[in-house]
Specification:
By secondary structure, the chain is mainly α. The chain has a domain of 115 residues. The protein has seven helices and no strands.
Length: 207
């Protein structure tokens, strides 16, 4: 009697197990042991979180958390967040470290398109957002759109103040001495008049 095909949860666990084995074998290619432990921890956490939620969804015991209305708390002093790991900032950061991970990234992308997997994700999008997005970011896979992070409130834009218009500076004309002859009155001419005269009354060019 042939075995039944694996479920979406079983396929997901199989992909992550093979990915973890590929990461472990990279120790022979120069990958440090602390870095291997970090990657294995991320894969194991995502695998366990998905397995717990998938079991509850299939058993019909999963219920999304509902926050009860509580009175507003006084503002508390927020603790500074630890600096993010610079290794995990790049999309697909695991690919240069573990080249065989390209195969498992393609398998994960195919599994996310499976109808059974899509049903599991749609049943608990808030709870499954973090582990699935972490794996997709690791393996350079675009996560489903309904697992996107909720957009925060838009910040009000401050109206831009119009810049004051600058008035053109008046043309400077030196004062004419009172005992100057008549032809020197209003001399020198304004810059605009002088420019127009030189353009319209320029001497002809010599052949």
């Amino acid at each position: 009697m042939p075995n039944p095909p694996p479920t979406a949860a079983e396929s997901f666990a199989s992909i992550l197990w093979c990915l973890a084995q590929a990461v472990v074998t990279r120790s022979a290619f120069g990958l440090s042991q602390p870095l291997i432990n970090l990657i294995i921890t991320r894969i194991r956490d995502a695998k366990q979180a998905f397995a717990r939620l998938a079991a509850r969804i299939q058993a019909g015991t999963y219920a999304p958390r509902r926050r009860a209305a509580t009175p507003p708390r006084p503002p508390a002093v927020r603790k500074p967040r630890p600096p993010p790991n610079p290794l995990c900032r790049k999309f697909g950061w695991l690919m240069p470290l573990v080249p065989p991970a390209v195969v498992f990234g393609g398998q994960l992308e195919t599994l996310l398109r499976d109808p059974e997997m899509a049903t599991l994700l749609a049943a608990a999008p808030v709870s499954l957002r973090r582990p699935i997005r972490s794996l997709c970011w690791m393996l350079r896979v675009e996560p489903p759109k309904f697992l996107a992070r909720p957009a925060g409130p838009a910040k009000p834009r401050t109206p831009r103040q119009p810049r004051p218009r600058r008035e053109p500076l008046p043309h400077y004309r030196p004062p004419t001495p009172p005992d100057a002859p008549a032809w020197m009155q209003n001399w020198p001419p304004s810059r605009t008049r002088w420019f127009s005269r030189t353009r319209t009354r320029s001497p002809p060019r010599k052949a």
